[in-house]
Specification:
This protein has 149 residues and is mainly alpha-helical. It has a domain of 101 residues. It has 5 helices and 2 strands, in the order H-H-E-H-E-H-H. The longest helix is centred in the last third of the chain and has 56 residues. The protein is rod-shaped and about 115 Å long. The chain starts with a helix and ends in a 15-residue tail after the last helix.
């Protein structure tokens, strides 16, 4: 999430949020937060209408990972920041569960497809034999039993 979106959620200005992050820089390693490049900012602004004001900002925005968002609650001490952070963490947990469920379901479907592909030939053979057995008696070859004179 970008710094300005998080500032809106926490009810503070982007400047205030970034000040607190800079004061507590040790709490935000590179895998918790990073600054967008000018090219990345351009792409993000093009994709998201609500970020149009960033186009003219002299500052490059910061992006926070899930861990960075969680760490913000330790930096911002307002009641709203704590409530919002709890809600965000619950949302991240639900998303992770959905992704795991989707992955498990995908694996089950692939396994089922493999089983069906393997059995297709066997099922075709069974139907061919059934057709021969259920064919009309006239179509069957009659064998003459006994002696011929």
């Amino acid at each position: 999430m970008l710094d300005n979106d998080l500032a809106l959620l926490y009810g503070v200005t982007t400047k205030r949020l970034n000040e607190q992050v800079k004061r507590n820089r040790k709490r935000f390693p590179d895998d918790f937060m990073f600054q967008l490049t000018p090219q990345e900012r351009k792409k993000v602004v093009a994709m998201c209408d609500h970020l149009k004001p960033l186009r003219f900002s002299p500052h490059l925005p910061y992006a926070f990972t899930e861990q960075g968002v969680a760490m913000l609650s330790g930096v911002l001490h307002s009641d709203r920041a704590i409530k919002v952070n709890i809600h965000i963490m619950r949302t991240f947990t639900k998303l992770r569960e959905l992704l795991l469920t989707h992955r498990e379901l995908s694996l089950k479907v692939k396994t089922l497809e493999k089983k069906c592909a393997f059995h297709d030939g066997d099922i075709k053979t069974i139907f061919d034999v059934l057709r021969k057995l259920l064919g009309s008696p006239a179509a069957k070859e009659k064998r003459i039993l006994g002696f011929r004179l």
